[in-house]
Specification:
Layout: H1 3-6, H2 12-18, H3 32-44, H4 46-56, H5 98-118, E1 125-134, H6 141-149, E2 156-167, E3 170-180, H7 186-194, E4 200-210
Antiparallel strand pairs: 1-3, 1-4, 2-3
């Protein structure tokens, strides 16, 4: 369907079909043609446009919204006479329904205030189990442990630890920790631990889970 053909469209269904494989009314980027159609649609269907824009603002909360009942569909009204058909390409000078616009802005403001009142989302955290391997059976394990736990980083909390035999009288340190994902890099943390070259041979992440 060409652009000239679409200018004769008479319904929302025609507009929807036309846009099925397109992102814009004409060409490959937004133009005044898109603005013209949007304004015409908004003027003819102010309540529907306001509702679509308002519900779109809840996109990030779709899964958390409470249950509700969808009202039973009503029979579609009979088609209007040709002279009453919707002109989706009305003049660019058409004014947006002021009441609908005010209501939309009020709803958006209420939503913004609601999100602000909730405060920031809790930080994403991970629980990690880390192996710290000493050089040999003569390594001072208690000093190695002290050196590891002396590392302080914002968003890092050290947890319980245990000594795990690996053979030939050597024991490795296995220690738990909790990190805030946005603040602590495990790679950087391991590098910091391995800087203790007198005690630490290497480190490995044994387990990791989100909390």
């Amino acid at each position: 369907m060409s652009f000239s053909d679409f200018s004769k469209a008479e319904s929302i269904a025609s507009l929807n079909s036309f846009l099925a494989d397109k992102s814009y009314i004409q060409g490959t980027s937004a133009t005044q043609a898109d603005v013209s159609v949007y304004k015409a649609f908004q003027k003819e269907y102010p309540a529907l446009t306001r509702w679509l824009n308002h519900i779109a603002s809840f996109t990030e909360e779709f899964e958390q919204l409470p249950a509700g009942e969808v009202p039973a569909s009503k029979e579609a009204p009979a088609a209007a006479d040709d002279e009453d058909d919707v002109d989706l390409f009305g003049s660019d000078d058409d004014e947006v329904d002021e009441e609908a616009e005010k209501l939309k802005q009020q709803r958006l403001a209420d939503y913004a205030a609601k999100k602000a009142a909730k405060g920031p989302k809790p930080a994403a955290k991970s629980m990690v189990s880390l192996d710290v391997k000493p050089w040999d059976d003569e390594t001072d394990l208690e000093q190695m442990l002290a050196n590891v736990k002396s590392i302080e980083v914002d968003g890092l909390v050290w947890g319980a630890h245990q000594w795990v035999p690996v053979g030939f009288g050597i024991k490795k340190l296995q220690i738990n920790l909790v990190i805030e994902d946005d603040k602590v890099s495990l790679t950087d943390l391991q590098a910091s631990i391995e800087e203790d070259e007198d005690h630490v041979q290497s480190t490995d992440v044994v387990a990791m889970s989100k909390i």
